[in-house]
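Notebook B, p. 112. Complex prediction, attempt 2.
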Amino acid sequence: MLSKKQIFTKGILAVAPHMFSVIPFGIVCGAIGIELGFSPVLVYAMSIIIFGGASQIVFLQLLSGGASALIAVTSVGVINSRHLLYGAVLSEYLEKLSFIKKLLISYLVVDQGFAESNKFFQKNRNETHLHYHLLGSGGTLWVCWQISTLAGIILGSFVPEELGLKFAVPLTFIAIVVQDIKKLDHVIVMITCGLSSLLFFDAPFKSYIIISPIIALFIASLVLRLKK
Amino acid sequence: MTWFTIIIAGIITYFMRMTMVALVDRDLLGERVKAVLAYVPSAVFPAIIFPGIFINDYGTFIEMNDPKIFGAIVAILVGYFSRNVIATIISGLFSYWIIIFLL
């Protein structure tokens, strides 16, 4: 049985490598906000209030492009609706926590933290302090996201756009799923999701980000039925 | 007004994170649903990966000889064999930069 501290440390170490993409993306995110003409305080506050990279950029781009507040808020909601799926997966491992702890830990759930902690949970179901892994991974991502968006706000236009730092984002997620390309069922689900996301890319409110997982999960349920 | 909008967006985002963890009883989900949920990472992340590679900042498809495709292939190969997240990200970025800056 691992101690709380050991599990917490494992959570930190599990997401630490993803900082190679989180930090550049945070810098880009802060820099874009300033470039679009928003006040530094406002751009930074989003990192605390929303705490979701892609949705923060889309939000500011929409508002600066003259979209209504309703459209901006709807888009953020749609982009971040994938967290419903993360929550459904994580709830199995967090169900013993008190209601208050569930409310608090939920704030820290983001893509990479979910992915890495979920991998740990699957392998260590019987540990008692599982949620400390999520605290370690989510907490690390939170701190780095705050520092890097702040850095982007301060550095602003010093970050050369030619570097294409946003490309680090797909790379970090490739690292997360790449071991599953050994499994045919997962490959089918991944390709379904990927192609759907390209097909529905122009759907309103960036809804491709939730439409394609739904289609992919539907395919997954068919695959499961075939496997039996 | 912008502040108000950000706060609403933040509250909605928080509810997305919290609802399934704190408000929904997991027993409501059937065994079949739980089995399908095991595919969530594979069913969600390609929706971030594919557009991040194949669609540019202006929302149009890239050319088939775009350096991002090369970078992604390198990252997949390095990631698969090294099982190392840092190596995956760095190899992808560097191979992308080599093409855009040196070739």
